[in-house]
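Below is a filled-in request sheet from our internal design queue. Each sheet records the structural input a requester submitted and the sequence that came back. We keep these sheets so that new team members can see what a complete request looks like end to end.

REQUESTER: design group, bay 2
PRIORITY: normal
MODE: inverse folding
CHAIN LENGTH: 156
BACKBONE (tokenized):
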């Protein structure tokens, strides 16, 4: 079962990067600098480098009309470029982190979930996608709960 892992589009966030800190505060967002590991960008699906500027914002990651609508804080890196989906491989942002995988039906209802410890994401993704009732998966950082990426079946 082939799959693709997709990041968010930079176009959805580009206006934030030119806003003042006061303007960001008005929308409950904040400009931050990466001070070490732990600043995963949802556009590039890579951790920010030391000193990179990111925007920390509230993001609706699962915008569905079900009880499973979901939103939480995410980082987007000012220097990130749109990334091609990762095909049949997991992105760098999954490395070294436990990842919560939530498998949803086409109607946006949670159907199954799995916890992937570091190094287990690929096999856990494949196991979830083997269930024909799962239309897509959302990956979240297990410890902090923030949205990481979307995973879909990939037909070449």
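RETURNED SEQUENCE:
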């Amino acid at each position: 079962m082939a799959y693709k892992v997709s990041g968010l589009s930079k176009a959805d966030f580009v206006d934030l990067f030119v806003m003042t800190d006061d303007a960001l505060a008005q929308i409950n967002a904040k400009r931050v600098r990466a001070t070490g590991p732990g600043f995963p960008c949802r556009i590039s699906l890579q951790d920010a480098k030391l000193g990179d500027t990111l925007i920390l914002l509230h993001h609706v990651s699962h915008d569905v009309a079900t009880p499973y609508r979901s939103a939480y804080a995410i980082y987007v890196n000012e220097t990130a470029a749109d990334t091609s989906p990762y095909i049949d491989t997991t992105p760098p942002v999954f490395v070294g982190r436990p990842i919560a995988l939530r498998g949803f039906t086409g109607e946006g209802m949670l159907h199954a979930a799995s916890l992937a410890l570091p190094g287990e994401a690929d096999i856990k993704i494949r196991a979830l996608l083997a269930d024909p009732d799962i239309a897509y998966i959302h990956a979240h950082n297990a410890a902090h709960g923030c949205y990481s990426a979307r995973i879909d079946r990939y037909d070449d």
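SHEET NOTES:
- The chain has a mean pLDDT of 96.
- The beta strands are 3-6, 30-33, 53-62, 70-77, 86-87, 99-104, 110-116, 136-141, 147-153.
FILED BY: M.R.
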